[in-house]
């Protein structure tokens, strides 16, 4: 006799990679198929199958979720350049030149954008586990970041028109070449950032020499998998300098060199800090946040982790860095942004300079903020936003939307939760060193990855990502933990 509960509606199952997939199959067997009589629509989202299907597996996953309305996704792997080369050697019939971006890039952003979903990451609390707090008081760890370039020196504004924004490049030929285009509406924020690769090289030399002079282990963190044309371009140049000029000296001194994705590395260093290290974070937006956090940790340490932490990340709009166009310049020239036929900004770049263009959607921002307030009200959470409104029009739109949503809630006689707006660096310090009892921290994509990984690694949570993706039409995707 079948004692399982019969479920009418099918469930989408998105399979992943490596040991996470081994655990995922056991979880499905123990908690789903052993208890429920349910039809499963299963899709292989492993890195290898995404490559072999040229990204069609990702498109199929989005279609299945839109059609069936609910799914569970396992952790997958986003390949870096080395891992991609290994897969291409394994499958010589695959033409690297014909690969769709979905074949090699992270499927997460595409799926979340495809179902117009925003992300909430919740702690999975284990009260029967004792977590040993790391001793941070006086810890000899320094963060080294670039002073100039990047988003810190970006051009950003709210679109003055509804239409098409084009990124144009004028090189030696004198003819304008269109690199990228996307639709924007009046009021949507957009941003162009570049970095001078000569400055990156100079920073790398200073960084490695400082580590040698001060005899510190070397840590380097970037997000080269998701932003390959920007962070990936910087990583390639920095590591070339390391291997050609400094690796032997560092090895002879008995020091170590460690590269990781910045979110995973931040979680590792904060939760299990080395005795003495120099932590290189070339991206100055992320680097300044981590520099301030480390300085605060050395003064006050880490409190007991009795607080409940939730992270909310917007995913349905332009995606910020994660939905960006990014590449290294192929030659010296002029980079221009054209909005609805009008030139809004131009700057010179040199061959090899990383370039990044990103935007967001005002209506999607509003949907996200409304979801943040609904979730916080339902779960009695305080809300802490992190925005740089004084310096960036890009962030100011979020502040304006917060006011819009609060007024709409008031008209509906729904009291919004208590909330505070602070700089992103203060938001991170608050979450780690002075957490309230029950709080929700809304953040943009890259910050959200870093913040949630740190919080999870410190305890009170099983994994780096236990996410609920909720779309406006009710589609739900539950992402299994990984880490």
UniProtKB/TrEMBL annotation:
Its cofactor is Mg(2+); Mn(2+). The keyword Metal-binding applies. GO terms for biological process: isocitrate metabolic process; tricarboxylic acid cycle. The keyword Metal-binding applies. Keywords: Magnesium, Manganese, Metal-binding, Oxidoreductase, Tricarboxylic acid cycle. Transmembrane segments: none annotated. Residues 10-369 form the Isopropylmalate dehydrogenase-like domain. It comes from the Bacteria. One of its GO terms (molecular function) is isocitrate dehydrogenase (NADP+) activity. PANTHER family: ISOCITRATE DEHYDROGENASE [NADP], MITOCHONDRIAL (PTHR11822:SF21), NADP-SPECIFIC ISOCITRATE DEHYDROGENASE (PTHR11822). Belongs to the isocitrate and isopropylmalate dehydrogenases family. This is 3-isopropylmalate dehydrogenase.
